Amino acid sequence: MAGVTVQRALVRIAGDDRSNGFDTLVAEEPLEIRIDGEAVAVTMRTPGNDFELAAGFLLTEGVVERGDQITEMRYCTGDEPQQYNQLTVTLAADAPGMAASGFRNFTTTSSCGLCGKASIDAVRTRSPYSVADDPLRLSPTILAALPARLREAQRVFDATGGLHAAGLFDAQGALVCMREDVGRHNAFDKVIGWAALEGRLPLTSHVILASGRAGFELVQKALMAGIPALAAVSAPSSLAVELADEAGMPLVGFLRRERMNVYAGDRRVTRLKLRTAD
Amino acid sequence: MAGVTVQRALVRIAGDDRSNGFDTLVAEEPLEIRIDGEAVAVTMRTPGNDFELAAGFLLTEGVVERGDQITEMRYCTGDEPQQYNQLTVTLAADAPGMAASGFRNFTTTSSCGLCGKASIDAVRTRSPYSVADDPLRLSPTILAALPARLREAQRVFDATGGLHAAGLFDAQGALVCMREDVGRHNAFDKVIGWAALEGRLPLTSHVILASGRAGFELVQKALMAGIPALAAVSAPSSLAVELADEAGMPLVGFLRRERMNVYAGDRRVTRLKLRTAD
Q1: Are A219 and A240 in contact (CB under 8 A)?
Q2: B235 and A266: CB-CB below 8 Å?
Q3: DSSP class of residue B272?
Q4: Using a CB-CB distance cutoff of 8 angstroms, which residues of chain A are in contact with residue B18?
Q5: Pick from B43, B87, B34: nearest CA to B184
Q6: A269–B82 C-beta distance less than 8 A
């Protein structure tokens, strides 16, 4: 199995200087996910936590609703050298499965009229959880402390500068799980897959933090896991905000120290005075 | 059709201050691409240049090899209000088509042994162009000037902070085409699709610049369009470097003013002294 990072030779140019050296790159390899032997997806990912990635992918696509609907996961072995890049998953009889999921459902829609609203409705239909009544309230103090805690936990980032991270925090702002990947969606899938395999779904009264931007699919993934709040270090997209708004989910963007923009669900971000983060 | 940006109300928090305001968000909407009426893909994208996006997607997936293998593209219209989110494409008889492309081919691989090398081999098999013998030579002076030219051309970025950009430059560093999108892959597809529809493929002696990181799929897309060089403002992944290396393509990362890392193809980055960019 490839490591999380790879050393590569390179030529560094700085003005007129040119020198040979080495750099630490984030590893990227394909992972094929199979259900009962049939390939259903290939994702380019950073090796590591592959079982979590597969579980999170299947859960956030609606193929399973709980971790225990995955009865077995194993690397595919055959005549070729074992590459740890193919995972086969066996589903329980009560899992929704591929047909019931949103995944690939586009092949069955025949009418015109695809739009952001239809995408939002699809998430609402598919998610087994509602976050609208979650008791979570977040203070700006707690939110302001999250990015630094995520960065502390990111050992790999400093070496490569090439990894997205997702951090799951409890209502008090304590880090529960952090995962990294070359793909931001994969980092979310790994965190959510970890929780699914630990039997922790739905993730009521938690908040998930993205190290970069927040698009529609990150909000979708959070909602599929019952996470009632999402924060991001950078900008959200229009459809991410619309989905969060309709779901009653606080969506915080440009979270940088004591500054933040609350794009949706601001009633659940308390007005308590900001205290210095512990 | 939604615009490229959307205005949204928000609550700004800065320390103990809390104020209502508006923010400009990058628009994100689904685009469904159909071939002869059958849906083949849905991508979340920033509306605009949709025909280019579809053409670039089909070209970089190997469904077509030239722009003129697309005989018609039109928005799908029906009973629903026209949303401009569904495009149907008609292919010429000599187009490779879905079956011959790499897209979804994972459903037909039955042996174990998926690995980065297999992904690299697949690109080599599918691309109708080779960049190994391209005469392009790039000087550090020309490379150093590219990011500023891309940013100048990005009118939307400053407003939203949420858009990826791709810029196509000629051998002298002049900007030929710039496209933006909420997804970095889409920005590349739009640039390449523009060139395909203009009949400019292969893009010999050009360089394409990514505003962010360079993963395997960006190198793949460049190679499918015959672009012999790729530069990125941030880090490349391990597999991006391997693919560029095997293809004989210069891959430059962390391109920031006169500093840059050459991860592959350094023989084609000249040793001319750095001059002040014009």
Answers
A1: yes
A2: no
A3: P
A4: 271
A5: B43
A6: no
Residue A104 near residue A196 (C-beta atoms within 8 A): no
Q: What tens digit of pLDDT does each residue of B134-179 get? A: 999 999 999 999 999 999 998 766 677 778 999 999 999 999 999 9
Determine which helix (DSSP H) or strand (DSSP E) holds A159, and give its type and residue range: helix A157-160
pTM to 2 decimal places:
0.90
A112 annotated active-site: yes
Report the first-to-last Cα separation within chain B, whole angstroms.
39
- What ipTM was estimated for this complex? 0.87
Q: How many helices (H) and strands (E) does chain A have?
A: 8, 12
Q: Which of B1, B6, B10 has the highest number of chain A CBs within 10 A, making it the mutation to test binding with A? A: B10
Whole-number Å distance between alpha carbons of A65 and A84: 25
Q: What is the pLDDT of residues B210-232, one digit of tens each?
A: 999 999 999 999 999 999 999 99
Structure tokens at A137: 């309230």
What residues in B contact A237, CB-CB < 8 Å?
25-28, 162, 182
In B154-274, where does DSSP find H-type helix?
157-160, 184-197, 216-224, 238-247
Residues of chain B with pLDDT under 70: 1-2, 77-83, 102-116, 156-158, 272-278
